[in-house]
Write a structure and sequence with these properties.
Shape: globular
CATH topology of the largest domain: Thrombin, subunit H
Order of helices and strands: HEEEEEEHEEEEHEEEEEEEEEEH
Distance between the termini: 26 Å
Structural class: mainly beta
Helix content: 10-25%
CATH architecture of the largest domain: Beta Barrel
Strand order of the largest sheet: 11-15-16-20-19-18
Radius of gyration: 17 Å
Number of strands: 20
Largest sheet: 6 strands, antiparallel, barrel
């Protein structure tokens, strides 16, 4: 498959359609100890905290996140507390010290371009010390999402996004809920044929629980969190973008079940 072609044309289309980096869990449920290998990452620029994202441990020192999270960062740290907000100020958030673990190295996919982040939206962080939790996230088999999309009703179509960040942005942006708590939701696969001009082989779209919009989905405020297949630790995508400023409707993930992305990621695990 020709992947992520026509980047310039796509970028022009998306300027009009307002595809923007996203996402945290909205209207989900607190994750508690369900995914202790999912952490809240704070990225620095020139020594100062600049933005936050979510990420998943693939090994004791290697974390997977989104490329638009790692791009431009010069340092940072991660927390694995299920409720980072409750631990302040003792945990040091968002600065160093406390329970935060500093980044040793930060990498963005070599073909990433910030103006078209959705084409290669994957990044890797190497931690300065290991985190031993027993279970870690694993990458989905290559082509998992293509197979699921063509076998509707025959295989599990549910997915579990996990992350930190905004839980609510409605009824208006001045009434947000940002607890710094790890949440999870349940979404369903819509399709893998691309959306809003993004080419096939890059994105995957999920619906935020049709008929039950307040039980889980994604929103602005955090990106890079894992989207697990069903209730497993198998990562099919990382939360990447949204199509609606009010965080309703569908959410977009960046696929990590494609060969070129896995070649990049496994380079840090082998």
């Amino acid at each position: 498959m020709l992947k992520k072609s026509l980047a310039v044309v796509v970028a022009l289309v998306l300027v009009l359609l307002a595809v923007v980096p996203a996402s945290a869990i909205t209207w989900g449920v607190p994750d508690g100890d369900g995914h202790p290998y999912v952490g809240l990452l704070v990225f620095d620029v020139n020594g100062a905290p600049a933005w936050r994202c979510s990420g998943t441990l693939l090994s004791p020192t290697v974390m997977l996140t989104a490329g638009h999270c790692t791009f431009g960062a010069t340092g940072g740290r991660v927390w694995f507390d299920s409720d980072v907000g409750a631990g302040r100020p003792g945990n040091g958030y968002p600065f160093g010290g406390g329970t935060g673990i500093e980044f040793a190295e930060i990498y963005t996919h070599p073909d990433y371009v910030d103006a078209a982040f959705y084409l290669y939206d994957v990044g890797v962080v190497i931690l300065s010390e290991p985190v031993n939790v027993g279970t870690y996230g694993v990458l989905a088999p290559v082509g998992l999402l293509d197979g699921l999309a063509t076998k509707r009703g025959l295989q599990d179509q549910t997915f579990t996004p996990v992350g930190y960040g905004l839980q609510s942005i409605v009824p208006n942006p001045n009434e947000v809920q940002a607890d710094l708590v790890r949440y999870r939701a349940t979404t369903k696969l819509i399709g893998v044929k691309g959306t809003a001009g993004i080419p096939e082989g890059t994105s995957v779209m999920f619906t935020n629980n049709p008929g039950q919009p307040h039980q889980g989905g994604t929103c602005f405020g955090d990106s890079g969190g894992p989207i697990f297949h069903g209730d497993s630790n198998v990562i099919a995508a990382v939360t990447s973008f949204g199509l609606n400023p009010n965080c309703v409707g569908n959410g977009g993930g960046y696929r990590v079940d494609m060969q070129d992305d896995q070649d990049f990621i496994y380079g840090f695990l082998n």
